[in-house]
Amino acid sequence: MPETWQDIAARKQKQRADQIPKAWLLPSSSHPTGTTDSSSGNVLDVPRKCGILTSEEIHITEDLDATALVAGLATGKLKSVDVVTAFCKRAAIAQQLVNCLTEVFFEDAVARAKQLDEQFRETRKPVGPLHGLPISIKDSFKVKGYDASVGVAGFCFKPATTNSALVELLLEQGAVLYCKTNVPLTMMALDSHNNVFGRTLNPANTVLTAGGSSGGEGALIAMRGSPLGIGTDVGGSIRIPAMCNGLVGVKPSHGRVPYAGQEGGALAGSSKLGVESTAGPIARNVRDCEMLLRAIGEGRPWLFDPDVLPQSWEQQARLTRPSRGQPLRVGIVRTEGHVTPLPPIQRLLDEVARTLQSSTLPSQEAIEVVDVDISRLGPQLLKVFNGIMSIDGANTWFDHIETTGEPLSPWLASRLRRRPQKALDEVRKLQAQKLELQTEFQKVWKEGGGYWAKDVEITCGDRTLDAIICPVAPHPVPPIDRWNTTNYTSAFNLLDLPAGVLPVRTFLESDTKGELPKGDPLNGWDKINQGLWNDIDRKVYVGSVMSVLVVAPKLMDRRLVESMAVLGKALAPLREGSGRASKL
Known about the structure:
single chain, 584 residues, alpha/beta, Amidase signature (AS) enzymes, 19 helices, 35% helix, disordered C terminus, AS_sf, hydrolase
């Protein structure tokens, strides 16, 4: 008799649990793994207080970011085995608290760390720019000898025979991989739940979502169980978990970071008919994201994936601002025209615009702010994105899950069903519409393109925007399974523009005030969004992190992270004013 999906899930969860040493186990009463109840919970401090970590391990995991760890490892001040062990222990604790891991390979990681330490002792040289640094990765990445099940029962116990392209590059650059992280079933949901591994919880508030589809990465990094993680993004799957967990997340342009060799559940070649997914970093600050992208860019990524452009990080410097005397010119987009942001999101964008306009940064980091209106494009972007993403009619995913009879996750149950596959001519028309929108959006970057406020005054330099700031979502971090539209993120996948999430400040008690505009909702999505304001106890949002999305022109990924660094400094007064003085 064939195994049921329940049998497979039980075996898989036991396999995962067996990889955690008994000395690293928490008392069962101290964690809410896999459960949600009506009261919020914050488990961020448990690793520090549980007694499992030594004082040195607490120092390594809390006081040093990934950039500082790399510096210490490259000079021999830190040993990889100590750093890797500290993060393995903290990841194990995080798993017990928020259910964020899938594959656990701590023993292999510690063995590799010892080898790297021995090589450094003999040569006094690091293996590469990521020498000895532990990095966590989303479950969709293939690591030889381990499953890439992406939470599908039929994919379990079928270990990969090769590494994904980015995995190979990271290992060549000296990184140590030690765990993979949870995703939603089909990786098309926005809350990381599947039948094999269960649901990942938000460690700052277990009532709120941890996001998806790289939700396990977001929760693990928020728990400081990883100094740096890598997710993937085809509609917001890096940026949504970054927002939910108060982190920095960067979705690169397609062609910057190797993506080949992933387990995505789709038939081979499907991405060439749709919207290309990309891989990128999730971290606690901008400089760690930049450090990883630099290491990837300098690792000749085009040798690992034929889709990657042969252009190093240093060569990308030509695409940054041409002159230090030119101000960073930022366009503020307050709505995409399909779903109106709720009052606290509108207030946040107003605060960001005012703070940037009054910024007192050094002259070489001066900022100009321009109001930009893309509301006539937003509905078109969402329609075309949804059309392209449904080319297959979800038939391949249903084929996968029906082999074991497993059900859809709750968020998907009312949203996903089999539909007829689109005909070739319909696919062609959608791709033509995508190209038209990409061409039209080129005008957004330029003065005179019809999207800037008419009263804008350009002080000097090129009359174009360096970056755009807009909401990550039209609502704050919502309760589990309540995320609304992805249009504020998916629009930039369709346009293939690099985009990153930048935390700004926490949601305050005063942010619960404000009323919606009178009149009917714009559409069904707008009505659902209004429900997240009118049909909810708004106090659930208090303490969550409010973030913005920063977008740069196509393939200008270095410009994106450099702009995010400047903007992070300029927005520090907002962060400090809300009591969240984190280093961005």
